[in-house]
Description:
The protein is built from 15 helices and no strands. By secondary structure, the chain is an all-alpha fold. α2 runs parallel beside α10.
Amino acid sequence: MKLEGKSLKHDFFRFIIPSLIAQWVYALYTMIDGLFVARGVSELALSGVNIAMPFVTLLFSVALMFAVGSSTVIAILLGEKKDQEAKEVFTQNILTIILVSILITALVLWKSGEIAAFLGATRLTAGYVRTYIITIACFSIFFICSYSLEVLIKTDGYPMKATIIVTAGAVLNCILDYVFVMLLHKGVWGAAFATGISQLIVVLLYLTHFCSKKTHMKLVRFTPSPSLAWRTMKIGLSSGITEFSAGIVIFLFNHAILTYLNEEFIVSYTIVTYVSTIIVMSMAGIAQGIQPLVSYYYGRRQPEKYHRLLKYALCFGTVFSIAAFILSRIIAVPLVSLFISPGLSELRSASIGVFHTVSYSFLLCGFNIIIGGFFTAIEYPRSAMAISLGRGFLFVALSLKLLTALFNGNGIWWAALLSEALCLLLTLLLFLYYRKHCRL
């Protein structure tokens, strides 16, 4: 079984590095779209793409919920030497995400105007938002399947293959974005269409693995099991919320900005969002990287191994958080210059200040996400859910409400730091409770 290699530390890096690269590539998908839209269309169109981003993160979060849930169950079953049951879980998961994808596409095509308005589209951005979400919705089955299969191929013991496929998709996305946006001048539709096509190709590449003889996961006859579906969703829900938290945070911040500041600050927040999404997805990559290993050793009843994996992840996450904070301060000026034209000097200056303020939150998010992912991998869904709901919605909403009441629009940019700090307190309490009862 490819989940066991030379040593535990070797396996840790064998899974973590590909997982991190895959997360960076997924984060770059939206950044690439944004960069081409900003340069090939306008800053206003970029605001429209940012307003539509919660819908894209919804697709990824649905994929991750089913993928992590089924991956955890599959890894535990493989650890228990129940290979046939693992294949049945894989089959039911694939059919479920196909049905969910079809429902999402139908809903968006039916209610695109209402969804755009709910996301925060204004009179100036509504056309861009609708175009983007409708086009992406037509490819939703490929978005959800690609992300789900990326997680499952790592559980199958091939993390580097997942990274190669994801990277190939990102390169293709860059090429298609350039063709449709810069050469053919297809605007926001072209950016969304390019991303959708690249996701389709990625799915086809994954299928070459799952249709080969190398895989432990094959489609088999099975009897639909509601209890298994519930177990899978219950385990994966916290990871799905963690993934969707980026979209929820964008949604909440966009509404606060439109209420207390003005529309041009959406551009400032969009640039910050691209970097913060990379940081959050990196931490999620660490959590997802150890998940198959932790679940496997949990299934084999070897707590000393999955506890050591957690220590490796926390140490790695701490170093990464500090490095990310320092690097984000260094690249603030050149990154802002990429997205905002030289003529908008005041917006450039304001965006750099926003970037510096929000970057403090990067120091805290890693511990929250990694501990939440660990709780998911050992089937502690309530603790994982509490952390995900806290950092993904409750603490963000509370922080925005409190700080805008005290400091109006200036308080918006400190909300990310306050919400991560509040979540850290909750995470520490849950982790201390776990240590007390599990003798970690």
